[in-house]
Amino acid sequence: MTLRPSGLVFIARADEDLLSAAARSGIAVPSACRNGVCELCEATLLVGPALNTRSQQTVSETGRLVLCRTLALGPLELEIGSVMAAGENTARKFQANVVDVRPISHDVFRVELQLPRRRELSFHAGQYLSIILPDTDPCYFSVASSPLEQNLELHIQASPDWVSAQKVIDAIKSGSSITLDMPHGGACLAAAPVKPLVMVAAGTGFAQMKSMVDYLQTTDYRQPVKLFWGVRRHEDMYLRSLAQQWHEQWPPFTFLPVVGDNEDNDWSGHHDQLVRAVLATGQDWSHVQVMASGSPVMVYTLMDALLAAGLPEDAFFSDVLEYAPRK
Ligand code: FES
User: Fold this and answer.
1) Between 206-216 and 240-249, two packed helices, what is the crossing angle to 10 degrees?
2) Domain encompassing residue 25
């Protein structure tokens, strides 16, 4: 299959819809319903034979189709904008409407945004965005929802002493529209990985993992997925019930919560504790992929420990490596 004007190419199996086939090749296509309803994955057939799986009719050349409801009956050329290959991030600005903002813990807000130009946005699970406010440096947040969802979900920690995040929450609460710049970040899943996954998140680093777990549950990925989620205090584990639900309902998934010292709120050893908990599993580190999200201290402590334990260097992924490179 060849996509125009991008020139991206992928292989589709005879029994596989074109949206799934593109995703398997790491090509992000705007999509949500995967059922022919939202029309986000609409394209024009330029050349080749294709079948609409809903009507069971062939699609005429120059006809419109939706990738999620189309099978290829031979090589195709399709015209579709806003597709993105793995590692090919071209961030752009979007206006987003605030659909919902509400606290989900003592200092974390869940924010839901809707993009009028959603058809122009593709991104990979685990990527992040920045929120642009006047007279303020951009603030970066992981997208907590899967790219296959229509709206964007964010988890924003905004304690009163964290001025920039508090400004973002104030702007979101008071305005009906905000400016985003996205997508960013190479520590993401363009397609289901070939190895088992170990995810390690501290605090709201959980948001990035949620995007990837939501995405993986829509693929045929069946390798083990372990999520270690470290927090300082029990009340900081703001979506524990969701992670527990994945554990109970998605067979490949194991949830491993790591909670710090509840008696000492200023205790700073919780990063070491999280890293120790990850190492204590006695995992064979030579054949897994690790995704990590948290502070640079936590991420580099974890990376050093895992590389020493046998993890190949190219199997460790974290946005920290990009935005806070070690000198
Ligand atoms: S029509 Fe909604 S994802 Fe294809």
Assistant:
1) 30
2) 2-79
Of 88-97, 237-246, 266-275, the least confident: 266-275
CATH number at residue 27: 3.10.20.30
Query: What pLDDT does 270 receive?
Result: 61
| Contact (CB, 8 A) for 110 and 155 | yes
CB 199 within 8 A of CB 228: yes
If one residue of 33, 52, 146 were mutated to test the ligand 1 pocket, choosing by the most ligand atoms within 8 A of its CB, it would be 33
Higher pLDDT, 92 or 89: 92
Which DSSP state fits 288?
-
Q: Is 148 in the pocket of ligand 1 (CB under 6 A)?
A: no
Cβ atoms 200, 283 nearer than 8 A: no
3-class SS letters over 97-142: EEEEEEECCCCEEEEEEECCCHHHCCCCECCEEEEECCCCCCEEEE
Q: How far is the CA of 313 from the centre of ligand 1 (A)?
A: 37
Q: How far is the CA of 189 from the centre of ligand 1 (A)?
A: 20
67 CA closest ligand 1 atom index: 4
Q: Is residue 159, in this structure, part of any structural domain at all?
A: yes
What pLDDT is recorded for position 263?
A: 54
Q: What pTM was computed for the model?
A: 0.90
Q: What is the pLDDT of residues 193-245, one digit of tens each?
A: 999 999 999 999 999 999 999 999 988 899 999 999 999 899 999 999 999 99
